[in-house]
Each structure stands twice: as C-alpha cells, then as structure tokens.
Amino acid sequence: MNTCSEEIILFMHEYMDGDISSEHETILKEHLQTCADCTRHFQELKKTTALIKSTPLICASSDFTAKVMAKLPKEKRKVGIKRWVTNHPFLAAASLFIILMGGSILSMWNNNQEFSFTKKPNLQVENHTVIVPKGETVKGDLLVKNGDLRIEGKVDGSVTVINGEKYMASAGRVTGDIKEINEMFDWLWFQIKIGAEEIVSFFKEDK
C-alpha cells in the first residue's frame, strides 16, 4: 500500500462519505482487484464506518452544563477584587481616598484630646475650666478644646467650645456666635471652615 498513489486513498474516503463519482469508483474497484494492501485497508475503513454508524447518538442532559459549572472551583475573592479594580479604576481610587481620609479624620479626632484654649490676659483657669471673670472683657474670639468654659464677664467676639461644655452666668455676655462642637462631623466641618478662612486670608494679604 505504501507504493499506491494518494489518489486511491482519497477515492476510498470519497466512497465512505458517499461523494465518489462513478469514474472514481471504477478506478478504485479496478485497483482493489490488483492490490491486496489497499483491499485490506479499504475493508478496515468499511468496518470502522459501520461501527461508528451503529453507535447510538449520545445527547447530554439539559442540566449538564449547570452541573459542570457547579463543580468547577470557585473564583478566589482576591481575583474577583483585582478584576473589579481593573474594570472600575475611578471608583476604586475614590473608595480608597474615602477610606484613607476617614481613617485620618478618625485618628485626628481620637488623638486631639489635649486641653487647650485661646490665651488671653484676663482669663482664669481652674482644672479644665476656662473662666471669663465677672467684670472682665475678653477681646477677640475665644476657643476652648477638651475643656469647659464659664462666662461670667463679657466676650467681645465669638466663642467655640470643642468637646466640652459652656456655662453662661446671668451677667455673662457674648457679642458674637456661640458654638459647641461635641460630634466628630461637627468638628470636621469646623476644621474645613477654619482652613477655608485661612486660605482666603492668605490670598487677601497677598494682594
């Protein structure tokens, strides 16, 4: 068979497929009568084709795909997160900024527990309580952090108490605004306003 032309092999396959022409079939049959190797190969092809045709058609069940997918290993959470970050870079950056900013703000709020106040010459301090004495006038804004404020005299400006309490005597007086900040979000808003005022003041001085 090794010496036979490839054309004869092609004719055999055409015959098995049912596509052979009468001319090619005549050539094939004449060759098979004179070549034992090709005859043996042709018979093997016929047996193989018959076996394939006799095998019943196997159809997969309707839930075959679902069962296979269920048995596949689950995607690791890290891979899922990486894919989400890759597909949503802007949202990932915004989320990271919010997390870092939130952690920074919380840390500042927790660490900023030291008692402090605006230094004025006519103020009195007892423990963690700043006192505006009766008959005294404090010029300018007054800020008290992590302590209390008792006003018996006059404050010619605004008063802000952070993380503390304000006590006003009957004779006490404040010409400006009075603010008590005991929540983190109030403190954050206060810090933003202070920062904005400093920026505006800087540009005004620069002109």
TrEMBL record:
Pfam families: zf-HC2. Residues 6-38 form the Putative zinc-finger domain. The chain crosses the membrane at residues 90-109. Keywords: Membrane, Transmembrane, Transmembrane helix. It comes from the Bacteria. Belongs to the zinc-associated anti-sigma factor (ZAS) superfamily. Anti-sigma-W factor family. This is Anti-sigma-W factor RsiW.
